[in-house]
Every structure is written in structure tokens, then in C-alpha cells.
Amino acid sequence: MGLFIVFEGGEGSGKSTQAGLLFRRLKQAGVEAELTYEPGGTQLGKKIRPALLRNHQRLSPVAELLLFAASRAQLVSEVILPSLTAGKTVVCDRFTDSTLAYQGYGQGIDLKTIDKINRLATQGVKPDLTILLDMDPKSA
């Protein structure tokens, strides 16, 4: 089984940049790796992403949660799990912790509900390492 590394943090904290740098470093070191992101990373995720990013103010918190879960479920099935099973290292920009932060603490959805939905969407897959980029929002 491969290694699953996730970058989490607020908007503009550098998650995508750092994930990309790690991915390139792993490849240079000869490590088989995949780079992906949420929401997105699959054809379905790429269709869901604009609805989440553009319509954030118009979506109900539950609809938002379920769209993230749908994108995540497809990403796990199509990219993350097959890559890990093949022994690859997977580097991902955002994962389940973002849902807890934004939909749970930010939108007030019950954390136990989010946990159940995340476990279903991820098929129990959890990161081996989560790197939290903690940055002052004004600086981000």
C-alpha cells in the first residue's frame, strides 16, 4: 500500500503550491506518485467544482456537503485507492479535514453526520500524513 499525504489550510495558504512542490520532489527522487486535488481530480469532480466555487452563497450547507462528498467518493474510487493499492504515493490538495472545518464548524452541520458521510465517501481511506498550513488570513 502506498503513502497518502494531504495538504490542508485556509484559502491562499499555499496548499496547491506546496503539494505541487512535494509531488515534483518525489518524482525527481524516483518515487511513483500521483498529485490530485479537491474538489476535482476526476471528470465528475471537475464538473462539480464550478458549482461549489461559484455558487457557494446560493447552495444550502447540506447540498454543499453532499457535492463535496460526491466529488470525494469519485476521487477515492478512481484515483486515490487505485494509486495507493499500486504502491504509489498520493499527494492531495484538501481532503476530509476541509469538510469538517468548512461545513462542520463553518456551516454548523453536525460533526457526526459529516463523519459518517466522509467515511462512506472515502471507503475508510485516511491520510497517512496531513500537513496543515496555518497562516494569517490577511497574509494569505
Question: Could you describe the 3D structure shown?
Answer:
The protein has 140 residues and is of the alpha/beta class. The chain has one domain (4-133): Rossmann fold (3-Layer(aba) Sandwich), CATH 3.40.50. Helix content is 53%, strand content 15%. The chain has helices spanning 15-28, 43-54, 61-85, 96-106, 111-122; strands spanning 4-9, 33-37, 89-93, 129-133. The protein has a four-stranded parallel β-sheet, sandwiched between helices. The chain is globular. The protein starts with a strand and ends in a 7-residue tail after the last strand.
Structural class: alpha/beta
Spatial sequence of strands, sheet with the most strands: 2-3-1-4
> How many structural domains are formed by the residues?
1
Bulk shape: globular
In short:
It is built from five helices and four strands, in the order E-H-E-H-H-E-H-H-E. It is an alpha/beta fold and 140 residues long.
Task: Please specify the SSE layout and strand pairing.
Layout: E1 4-9, H1 15-28, E2 33-37, H2 43-54, H3 61-85, E3 89-93, H4 96-106, H5 111-122, E4 129-133
Parallel strand pairs: 1-3, 1-4, 2-3
Helix pairs in contact: 2-3, 3-5, 4-5
What key phrases describe this protein's structure?
single chain, alpha/beta, Rossmann fold, 15% strand, 5 helices, 4 strands, 140 residues, four-stranded parallel sheet
